[in-house]
Amino acid sequence: MVVQRALVDAHLQRWMESLPKGTLYEPMAYLLSLPAKRVRPVLTVMGCELFGGHGKDVLDEAVAIELFHNFTLMHDDIMDASPLRRGRPTVHAKWDVNTAILSGDAMLVKAYQLMGANAEVLSIFNRHAIEVCEGQQLDMDFERRDIVSLSDYAAMIRLKTAVLLACALRIGACKAGAPLDDQERISSFGENLGLAFQLRDDLLDAFGDDDRTGKVSGGDLRNGKKTWLLIRGLELEQHLGRNVLMDQLRLPSVQRDAKLMVQALREYGVEREAEIEVARLEGIAFAQLDDLDGPGRSTEDLRILANALRARVS
Amino acid sequence: MVVQRALVDAHLQRWMESLPKGTLYEPMAYLLSLPAKRVRPVLTVMGCELFGGHGKDVLDEAVAIELFHNFTLMHDDIMDASPLRRGRPTVHAKWDVNTAILSGDAMLVKAYQLMGANAEVLSIFNRHAIEVCEGQQLDMDFERRDIVSLSDYAAMIRLKTAVLLACALRIGACKAGAPLDDQERISSFGENLGLAFQLRDDLLDAFGDDDRTGKVSGGDLRNGKKTWLLIRGLELEQHLGRNVLMDQLRLPSVQRDAKLMVQALREYGVEREAEIEVARLEGIAFAQLDDLDGPGRSTEDLRILANALRARVS
Questions:
Q1: B62 neighbors B41 (Cβ within 8 angstroms)
Q2: For chain B, what is the domain count?
Q3: Which has the higher per-residue pLDDT, B313 or B187?
Q4: A101 vs B contacts (CB less than 8 Å)
Q5: A4 and A16 share one domain
Q6: In terms of domains, do A72 and A140 share one?
Q7: Residue in A71, A98, A109 nearest the CB of B126
Q8: Residue B78 is part of which domain span?
Q9: Residue A314: pLDDT band by 50, 70, 90 thresholds?
Q10: Residue-wise over B86-100: b if at least 16 C-beta within 10 A, else e?
Q11: Best CA proximity match to A167, nearest among A118, A119, A116, A132
Q12: Are A85 and A33 in a shared domain?
């Protein structure tokens, strides 16, 4: 993991140093300079290495994926009106909305420029890039809807978050010449890892230790954000003839009691259910790796990365 | 021209009918349904035919260029806070800013999806797509600057407007297998045609007949928009020791007298200078076509298109 990360960091650094001066490019360099785990480009390198390729031959594609991811962050932050990202001002807060729109656009073009002209790679990338936009659209649509089902929510998270991990891995595997069924397996690993990661993150927000996460517990709940936990909590509450969550949601968000909401989720059994769902998703993910392990081929690096991600949010 | 336009319209129509339902795609179909001349995709088809290719073999690329152009319109309209485009509500006015940001993003991905995986075509497209973003950035930068020189302005218009015409033609030529020097010539035709077109448009805004243009004369001047005419007018005014334009610009825009400003531009000789500049740019453009004409090769369709563009804004 350390080796692949170093390769990615060096390549990204070189790319950033090649940027022209000016208002169009400075926001890209700024956003890319914020602390980040570089999970996606590292996955591209690992996906390539797993199937016998050299990591250094897929660094352009790896950095292209990271640029695409950061383009989505720059524009999502405008749409969510988020003032901060990783404790630093977002691009539209530091510059202005127009700069963040245009610099994001140019970053998407730059991602394509780096992705190259391999037909199979481009086809994978285009398909997943559109899915990520569809996921963000669903997320915005859901905010205006009163009722979102658990399966609607899972479909949204799959598109918005999980498919880009699958895409990163698959592009690496594709460049190494992996057969299609192996590409499907490594994609499925990435997608289920992404779904599990998101649900762990939601769990952490509600039930995590404030000191460890650095966030106030239940922030998502207080904001009425339709996460897996809140959607499932509202379903169960109705079956149980209770109304703690519903009553809280009727209050203005500043008056909501997050502790009470967390307590209700625990009582209804939502925490336990979510933990089981995380384990189920991770089970699917790791089963793909089991299938891919074989003579002369090791998924160990991917397992180490996956476990590091789990540790961060467990 | 009619034939190429019909090919483009039919292909674009098929593409629009293939779009999924939903908030992400409806704004694309809406914007593409507004009346438009389809100059860029028609140029791609003509660029291909000029060098012996079949127009139908370049329709994906032609429509990709039109999608890219419409993506820039969708985002530029947000940045300019424009409520109307061709007399109809802009996407961000009809839906909202977030929808216009995201639908525009997805439209750019769709443009790439249609552009395909030809390395030479992609390289041309990527290079020009970045230039268009750089042009829009310069345009926004200029709004905040007091002094913009005529050469700064020309550089901005070249990037923001003219290079996409060059790109459209060059991609058509490239697909037909045109040698690089011919690609350069047809690019230069497109770029100079674009520069001339923009300057004609500025002239029309200031000196055009209200009844013909459907716009109020001098709208750009009243808004203090830094066009070629205003920049050159301010330069000449200083040399002449006059101050009509400067005095008007110091007033709030609603109090400005556009007629007085137009009159000053005429007196200073700016109208005449701009007409000479248009003729110079068109001279360069048509000289490229002269060079390209030859046995078994006719630039007639391109000349007809260029003249139709001139007639509209003369």
A1: yes
A2: 1
A3: B187
A4: 75, 78-79, 101
A5: yes
A6: yes
A7: A109
A8: 2-312
A9: very low
A10: eeeebbbbebebbbb
A11: A132
A12: yes
User: Is B174:B50 a contact under the CB 8 Å cutoff?
Assistant: no
**pLDDT, tens digit (0-9, with 9 covering 90-100), for B51-74:** 999 999 999 999 999 999 999 999
pLDDT at A162: 97
CB neighbours of B91 closer than 8 A, spacing ≥ 6?
A: B27, B30, B31, B74, B77, B99, B100, B103, B104
B263 reaches A (C-beta below 8 A): no
For B23, B66, B183, B217, B278, the CA distances from B88, given in Å and listed in that order, are 18, 19, 37, 20, 30
pTM of structure: 0.94
**What is the SS3 assignment for B31?**
helix
Looking at residue A161, what DSSP letter applies? I
Give the tokens for residue A191.
């997608």
Q: How many CB atoms lie within 10 A of CB A141?
A: 16
Nearest CB to A79 within list B24, B101, B129: B101
Write down the residue that tokens 């799959």 correspond to: A158
Q: Do A187 and A174 lie in a common domain?
A: no
Handedness of CA B288, B289, B290, B294 (dihedral sign): positive
Question: Which residues of chain A does B134 touch, with a Cβ-Cβ cutoff of 8 Å?
Answer: 22, 24, 106
* Assigned token pair, B194: 């674009």
The answer to ipTM > 0.90 is yes
Residues A290 and A302 in one domain: yes
Looking at A178, A198, A216, the residue that finishes a domain is A178
Query: Token pair for residue B166?
Result: 């060059």
**Among residues B105, B83, B103, B78, which one has the least CA distance to residue B23?**
B103
Q: Is B155 on the interface with A (CB under 8 A)?
A: no
Amino acid at B129: A
Neighbour-count burial of A119, counting CB atoms closer than 10 A to its CB (0-12 exposed, 13-18 middle, 19+ buried): exposed
Q: Are residues A130 and A79 in the same domain?
A: yes
Residue the block writes with tokens 């059994």: A269
The answer on A189 and A87 residing in a single domain is no
Neighbours of A296 (CB within 10 A): 5
- CA separation (Å) from B310 to B188, B193, B198, B199? 17, 9, 10, 11
> Please, are residues B47 and B65 in contact by the beta-carbon 8 Å criterion?
no
CATH number, domain of B287, equals: 1.10.600.10
Q: Are residues A55 and A68 in the same domain?
A: yes
